[in-house]
Amino acid sequence: MARSLEGLSPEELGLLSAYNYLPSRTAAIIMLALFGVTTILHTGQAVHHRTWFLLPTAVLCGIMELLGWGGRLWSYYDVLNSTPFQIQITCAILAPTPLLAATFVMFGQIINRLGSIYSRLTPKQYTILFCTCDVVSLIVQGVGGGLAASADVEAGESPDLGGRIMLGGIAFQLAVITVFNICVAEFMWRYITNRPLRPATYSEPELKHTDARGIITPKLRYMLGALAISTVVLFARAIYRTIELADGWNGKIISNETYFIVLDAVMVLIAMYVLNLIHPGPFLYHDADSAVLSVPSQEKINRRSPWARREQAATTDSEA
């Protein structure tokens, strides 16, 4: 730290910093340790279970969080240096976006398991649509973060433009998560109440199912719970970030480190550790009990479904 800053209190140093406070060294060290552990676990689990899609999603999220908190720790020791501030503001805002992409991919697999007849889109379409939106959100937030972080305030440049772009990116991400949650809720409601959008199809001549109703196994039940928790905390984090950026760079929300730790870092930690404990490898992809109902059982269920009743009524009318 520069000699001219010696003797200043943390409050006085905070007034000089871009954070509007002096970042906590203790919090930074704890977060680096926690994010380091979960990132290492996700890396090992992805390799062990061959769930390679988690490397550019969950693992990348952890790496970006480590960079962001590393920047905050650096800022504690050199509070007026703009480089660590630029690192943390860009990495912290972007980090959860890849983790959301992993959620979209896993939900597509769940649709495969339980039956695409209950889904408005195919699993592939869900993955393409929501992951594309996720990438768009990532790019917009990255551009905004870069502009905001690189603004030279001393030269008269304002970070407001970058902040507005970041706000647009995170607001778009919030909208994407909202639509995704609605789609998940509708899918589960249709599955539980057995209200398919279309009939199950079978390949000839073996009559092997292609999209028949699947069974929720105990492992799959845990996986659904883990994804629900992960999605909820990331949704809460997106709400916080949207309000924070809308409040402005000198607002009360962005100037409170406790809000940032609890509503940003802790939310992402919960999402990552939940997926460590209930990993998609053994609980989703390697679930040996992922049987679907047999053709006779499926046909019996279809006869009880609203779609099948409508079809039966139409057939009866045509025969008459």
From TrEMBL:
Where does the protein principally reside? membrane
Q: Name one GO cellular component term.
A: fungal-type vacuole
According to the record, the segments passing through the membrane are 20-41, 53-75, 87-107, 128-150, 170-189, 222-240, 260-278
Which Pfam families does the protein's record reference? RTA1 (PF04479)
| Superkingdom of the source species | Eukaryota
Per UniProt, which keywords does this protein have?
Membrane, Transmembrane, Transmembrane helix
Q: Does the keyword Membrane apply?
A: yes
Protein's membrane topology:
Multi-pass membrane protein
List localization entries.
Membrane
Query: What's this protein's name?
Result: RTA1-domain-containing protein
Q: Recite the lineage of the species.
A: Eukaryota, Fungi, Dikarya, Basidiomycota, Agaricomycotina
